[in-house]
Amino acid sequence: MIKAVLLDMDGTILDTEAIHKKCWERAMNEAGIDYTPRTFYDLIGLNDKSTYEYFKSNFGITDELYNKISVNAYFYADEYVIKNGINVKKGFFELSDFIADKGLKTAVVTSSIRSVAENNFKLAKIIRPFDAIIGGDCVTNGKPGPEPFLKAAKAVGILTEECLAVEDSSNGIRSAHAAGIKCVYIKDMTDIPDNVKALADYKTESLDKIIDIIRNTNDDLNHKGNNSLLS
Q1: Span 162-166, mean pLDDT?
Q2: 94, 146, 167, 216: most buried by Cβ count inside 10 Å?
Q3: What is the pTM of this model?
Q4: What does residue 31 show for φ and ψ, rounded to 5 degrees?
């Protein structure tokens, strides 16, 4: 039985991955560091701590230079969304209405800082509150480790086996899988390796399609329960 839906934010609820790509690419190029497609793929789903560790490991840069790149990237992103707003991914409002109608719990599990997530939802005009928002600053070890999703399940008071995660990135899928939570993979800007894709329990193209996944799962379990009562 699915009683809670735990959604990633960037690239899943909000159409923001292209914004992040453009802003980090600009900030890195200004600092004299090449931004490659591999860099973009590796950074998707990482929180600030993991991003810092990635830069130190792969580019060997000083803390001062990393801080400059990070600050500039976030500044460019803020500048863009304030001017242009943020688009919501296809099917989100339909899924949100279904979740509310069925009385399911919802949590956002994002690598972005919680305050940034809250502001982004305001800019995107997402008014209905989530039951919990787990930001990258709310955990010690972010995606691809299990802590973000485990913390989200605990925050909404639902067992992990009764949760459904929704993710667009390799790091996010690995995180949900490590937490023992079934996961839906929705492709955004980049495809993911087949071995990671295989960790996802479901694959779909838009958020509204998840309604059928929840309905079918819960209806099947209800049907089995009724049959056992009759036997």
Answers
A1: 99
A2: 167
A3: 0.88
A4: -90, 5
Give the β-pairing of 132-134 and 105-109: parallel
**CB count, 10 Å around CB of 103?**
7
- Measure the CA dihedral 166/169/171/175, to 10°: 10
**Over the stretch 26-57, which tens digit does the pLDDT of each residue have?**
999 999 999 998 898 899 889 999 999 999 99
For 53-107, what is each residue's pLDDT tens digit? 999 999 999 999 999 999 999 999 999 999 999 999 999 999 999 999 999 999 9
CA 108, CA 123: separation in Å to the nearest integer?
16
85 sits in the region (left: phi over 0; alpha: psi -120 to 50; else beta) called left
- Determine the residue type at 165: A
Tokens of 140: 């010690």
Instruction: Identify each DSSP E strand in 78-205 by its residue range.
Output: 105-109, 132-134, 163-167, 182-186, 202-204
Phi, psi of 105 (to 5 degrees): -85, 155
